[in-house]
Amino acid sequence: METVYKFALVVVLLVVIFSLGQALFFMMKDQDDDRRTVWALTRRIGLSLLLIAMVIIGWKMGWIHPHDVGQ
Question: pTM of this prediction?
Answer without folding.
Answer: 0.81
